[in-house]
Design brief:
By secondary structure, the chain is an alpha/beta fold. It has 9 helices and 10 strands. Helix 6 runs parallel beside helix 7. The protein is flat.
């Protein structure tokens, strides 16, 4: 783990990245941890250390993996996917040597591409190499923002994404979505292009890419691509400038959810 000074520096980076000004940072952390302000002052000054539980609370509040407080781990890293039900979860594990009798273990790790799968010991196939898990930290689900002026659509998106282990925050206005994104960034966005006859999602996309400096995947949904309601050149500009994808309504939302799952659960290149 990091030293107290490094942990504090990492906390300050997270706060700054989430738009919390330096003068407000200790107050915000005091609220998250439900501690007295003087206690947080002592932690920031190095007189008191951070406990693992406190670091977990801070990471969870800002939707950061616990690995941000572990040296030599990239800030967005997880190295395993927990699969004990139909809904996957990202996690960070430490493992030991290979097991000879995995069926006696509640959970084991098996190698998968660039990372690991965590499965029940009883699910290990004959001859499959698996490893004993020493420690596991289950990370918060990926969060995606869904924007549409029709709440039935965002509700359906949320349902489909939940089956893929992805949480969806639903919004009917650009302003409310961006306010939420400033305080707690999302890992992806599904945006209805035509929010009204006078408003498109263009301003939201520009803000996400340029102001929030986010490279999160963005998918535009539109039902008027072949009509005069939509200026196709405007959408083309978004695709070219900001690397967004376009899906025409009525979209197969189950496929959209699986596409986001594939991106958000892809193992970081350094997973080990």
């Amino acid at each position: 783990m990091m030293t107290n000074a490094n942990e504090t520096a990492q906390i300050q980076k997270i706060l700054t990245r989430n738009g919390v000004r330096p003068r407000q940072q200790m107050t915000v952390i005091a609220g998250i941890l439900e501690l007295e302000y003087v206690s947080i002052q002592q932690k920031f000054s190095g007189k008191r250390s951070w406990t693992p539980e406190q670091l977990k609370l801070i990471a969870a509040h800002f939707n950061e993996p616990l690995s941000v407080f572990i040296t030599n781990e990239p800030a967005n890293a997880w190295n395993a996917i927990l699969k004990i039900s139909d809904v996957p979860q990202r996690c960070l594990i430490q493992h030991s040597n290979a097991l000879e009798t995995p069926k006696f273990e509640n959970l084991v790790a098996v190698r998968e591409a660039d990372g690991w799968l965590v499965i029940p010991g009883t699910k290990v196939e004959e001859g499959q190499v698996c490893y004993k898990i020493l420690k596991i930290d289950v990370l918060p689900n990926p969060r995606v923002a869904a924007l549409d002026d029709n709440p039935d659509i965002t509700d359906t998106i949320a349902t489909m994404f939940a089956w893929q282990g992805v949480d969806v925050a639903q919004f009917q206005s650009i302003q409310s979505m961006l306010e939420a994104a400033k305080s707690q960034p999302f890992e992806g966005y599904v945006l209805d292009w035509m929010l009204s006859r006078l408003e498109t999602a263009e301003s939201a996309i520009v803000y996400i890419r340029e102001k929030l400096q986010s490279n999160a995947p963005i998918t535009i949904l539109t039902g008027e691509l072949r009509t005069t309601e939509v200026n196709q050149s405007e959408i083309a500009k978004m695709v070219e400038r900001f690397d967004v994808t376009v899906l025409e309504k009525p979209a197969v939302l189950e496929l959209l959810a699986k596409s986001f799952h594939k991106q958000l659960f892809r193992f970081p290149s350094s997973a080990s």
